[in-house]
Design brief:
alpha+beta; 5 helices; 3 strands
């Protein structure tokens, strides 16, 4: 991920997500992917600086964690990414937005990607960064309430 030159890599994002979800009992992170807010449909964008959108599929009861998860993830990203922290402190990057995906949403994303590319199921590796408006729109369609 790279909105302002901060280059948050897969290892940093994964660690931040794992540490965030460790704070909640009875919920397990199953799958995730990220996108830059620039790829979000206009109706889904929020005002302010660009931000990361993190799509997560979890197992267990989410309860009311949706209200707190973005703030906690943002703190973890600041902890593990010095340049991310610098840009956040200068309001150059907005707080990450966490979007919960319905169970099986990433399996359906896999089908969508394979159906719309030259990849085969045997070659498929879940992308951690979604790079097209089409894949972002598709996974948004898998969002849970």
């Amino acid at each position: 991920m790279n909105l302002r030159g901060e280059k948050v890599d897969e290892v940093c994002m994964r660690k931040a997500l794992e540490n965030t979800f460790k704070q909640f009992s009875g919920i397990t992170l199953i799958e995730y992917a990220c996108a830059e807010s620039l790829l979000m449909p206009d109706s889904a964008k929020r005002q302010g600086p660009h931000y990361y959108v993190v799509f997560v599929e979890v197992e267990g009861n989410k309860g009311d964690i949706g209200e707190h998860i973005s703030t906690l993830l943002d703190a973890e990203l600041c902890e593990h990414g010095a340049l991310y922290k610098m840009w956040r402190s200068q309001n150059g990057i907005g707080t990450a937005d966490v979007v919960f995906v319905k169970p099986g949403g990433f399996a359906r994303l896999k089908n969508y990607i394979v159906d719309n590319s030259t990849a085969t199921f045997n070659q498929f590796k879940q992308p951690r960064k979604l790079k097209t408006e089409g894949t972002v729109a598709f996974i948004l369609g898998q969002a849970s309430d």
